[in-house]
Amino acid sequence: MSTTANTTQAFDVVSIRRDFPVLNEQPYGKRLVYFDNAATSQKPTAVIQALVDYYSRYNANVHRGVHYLSQRASDAFDAVRGKVKEFIHAANEREIIFVRGTTEGINLVASTYGRKNVMAGDEVLVSAMEHHSNIVPWQMLCEEKGATLKVIPMNDKGELILDNIEQFLNEKTKIVSITHTSNSLGTINPVKEIIKHAHAKGIPVMVDGAQAVAHGSVDVQDIDCDFFAFSAHKMLGPTGIGGLYGKLHLLEDMPPYQGGGEMISSVSFDRTTYNEVPYKFEAGTPNIADVIALGAAIDYWNNLDREAAAKYEQELLNYCTEKLSVINGLRIIGTASNKASVISFVLENINAMDAGMYLDTKAIAVRTGQHCTEPVMTRFCIPGTIRASFMFYNTKEEIDFFVEQVEKAISLLNP
Amino acid sequence: MLGMLQTENEIVEDFELFEEWDEKYQYIIELGQKLPALSDEFKTDDRKIKGCQSSVWLHASVSDGKIIFKADSDSTFVKGEIALLIQVMSGRTPEEIIKAELGFIDRIGLRQHMAQTRANGLASMIKQMKLYAVGFQHKTA
Question: Could you report the predicted ipTM of this complex, rounded to two decimals?
Answer without folding.
Answer: 0.88
